[in-house]
Specification:
The chain has 67 residues and is mostly helical. The protein contains four helices and no strands. Helix 2 packs across helix 3. The relative contact order is 0.14. The mean pLDDT is 95.
Length: 67
């Protein structure tokens, strides 16, 4: 519920934590040159709706997986 609300554009401290974690992960993974750049990339992914689309695709795959 929390992830979906953040990815739907809800602001506040939960979004801030998600952005910080994503920013650090993107920097560590080499997808961003700095945490700040990672924060910007994560915010764009959320604000554009791309992050929510990825979550929905992942949920669909999880539901259709055998087992």
């Amino acid at each position: 519920r929390i992830a979906r609300s953040v990815l739907a554009g809800e602001g506040g401290p939960r979004r801030d934590v998600v952005l910080l974690n994503a920013g650090v992960a993107l920097e560590v993974a080499g997808r961003a040159a700095s945490v700040e750049e990672g924060l910007e990339l994560a915010a764009r992914a959320i604000d554009s709706g791309r992050a929510a689309e990825v979550l929905e695709r992942w949920a669909e795959v999880s539901r259709s997986a055998p087992g």
